[in-house]
């Protein structure tokens, strides 16, 4: 099982990444700002328009199985650098066969969505308990929504198509985000619904940024076990989309991104001053504020949990890699079903 390592995030514009012996050196205006041994890294994520890397570093990252990706300053994925694919061809062929067979895809996707809805309910119920006597009306709203999602969850085993499964997931997502404002304790942050491309308010901007980080980790996890991150089961093929990574993050969205976003807002680690709005209404995190979120993201990944299926203690940051390996084992026939992650 792969050991959980750290991810290096580079946000310094005009930075140049180069190989320096067995390490990566980040150069800026003729000075080395940081030097990190490659063997200490699992991934390198660059956020900026003018960040570049040497061919020697790209080659070293490919050999060391360190993912290297480039994003806009606002988190949109641009490109990744990777070497020859070394994944197990038999595993990938089985992945493609399952993806082309709807009943097989449905079985895997149903487990992912069941776990997502269960984890969503946990977020709502924990918030309901936290409010308790302080705000009975808010607590009741969260509990009622959780109960409704629980009823929809019971229908998943009866789904006969991916479209019907997507219908349940879409309905529950709408329910969840309709009460998301009740999870926010800072009155200045107003959330009226999910907006994505572009995000139209600070809460959506923060959620979208965290989802990008989560997708990067899931994509790296898929590649590290030999799975094709482009070939999903719930999310269908689309050029440039890491569909399997999007499948995997469904069960992690409430645990990783949503709770971290709420924590950053409610604890005032992020304020409205950390965002900027464009003329078209698009809202994004400011440069310095992204660094605050990235730091909190890395700290969150170090939190310890006990995996509900393996019954082993591990960091949250290891979960995408563990789940990718469990999915690979299922595809190889070692497990009868994919054991999606359900947060306890």
What would your notes on this structure say?
The protein is α/β, with parallel strands linked by helices and 344 residues long. It folds into two domains: 6-81, Ribosomal Protein L15, Chain: K, domain 2, CATH 3.100.10.20; 89-332, CRISPR-associated endonuclease Cas1, C-terminal domain (Four Helix Bundle (Hemerythrin (Met), subunit A)), CATH 1.20.120.920. Helix content is 46%, strand content 16%. It has helices at residues 55-63, 89-100, 102-131, 136-153, 162-178, 202-224, 243-249, 253-266, 287-301, 319-332; strands at 6-10, 16-20, 23-28, 31-37, 41-47, 52-53, 67-71, 77-81, 275-277, 283-285, 304-306, 313-315. The radius of gyration is 20 Å and the shape is globular.
User: Tell me, what's the shape?
Assistant: globular
Name the CATH superfamily classification of the largest domain: CRISPR-associated endonuclease Cas1, C-terminal domain
User: How many helix segments?
Assistant: 10
- Topology, number of strands: 12
Which CATH-level-2 architecture of the largest domain? Up-down Bundle
Percentage beta strand: 15-25%
The major β-sheet equals: 4 strands, mixed
* Domains (count): 2
- Mean pLDDT equals 88
- Looking at how many chains there are and whether they match, the oligomeric state comes to single chain
From the N-terminal CA to the C-terminal CA, the straight-line distance is 23 Å
CATH class of the largest domain: Mainly Alpha
Weakly predicted, low-confidence segments: 1-5
Q: What portion of residues is helical?
A: 40-55%
Radius of gyration: 20 Å
């Amino acid at each position: 099982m792969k050991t959980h390592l750290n991810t290096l995030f580079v946000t310094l514009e005009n930075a140049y990444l180069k190989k320096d012996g067995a390490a990566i050196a980040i150069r800026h205006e003729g000075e080395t700002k940081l030097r990190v041994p490659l063997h200490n890294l699992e991934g390198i994520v660059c956020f900026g328009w003018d960040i570049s890397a040497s061919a020697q570093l790209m080659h070293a990252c490919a050999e060391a199985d360190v993912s290297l990706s480039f994003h806009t300053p606002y988190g949109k994925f641009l490109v990744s650098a990777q070497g020859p694919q070394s994944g197990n061809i038999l595993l990938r062929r089985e992945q493609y066969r399952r993806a082309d067979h709807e009943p097989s895809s449905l079985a895997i996707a149903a487990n992912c969505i069941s776990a997502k809805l269960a984890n969503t309910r946990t977020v709502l119920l924990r918030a309901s308990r936290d409010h308790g006597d302080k705000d009975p009306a808010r607590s009741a709203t969260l509990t009622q929504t959780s109960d409704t999602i629980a009823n929809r969850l019971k229908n998943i085993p009866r789904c006969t198509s991916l479209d019907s499964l997507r219908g349940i997931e879409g309905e529950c997502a709408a329910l969840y985000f309709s009460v998301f404002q009740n999870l926010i304790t800072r009155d200045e942050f107003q959330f009226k619904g999910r907006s994505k491309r572009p995000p139209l308010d600070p809460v959506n901007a923060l959620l979208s940024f965290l989802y990008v980080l989560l997708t990067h980790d899931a994509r790296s996890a898929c590649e590290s076990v030999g799975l094709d991150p482009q070939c999903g089961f719930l999310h269908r093929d689309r050029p440039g989309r890491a569909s399997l990574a999007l499948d995997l993050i469904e069960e992690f969205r409430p645990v990783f991104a949503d709770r971290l976003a709420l924590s950053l807002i409610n604890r005032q680690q992020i304020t409205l001053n950390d965002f900027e709005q464009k003329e078209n209404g698009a809202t994004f995190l400011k440069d310095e504020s992204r660094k605050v979120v990235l730091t909190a993201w890395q700290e969150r990944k170090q939190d310890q949990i006990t995996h509900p299926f393996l019954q082993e203690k591990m960091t949250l940051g290891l979960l995408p890699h563990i789940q990718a390996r469990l999915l690979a084992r299922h595809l190889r026939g070692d497990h009868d079903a994919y054991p999606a992650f359900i947060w306890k």
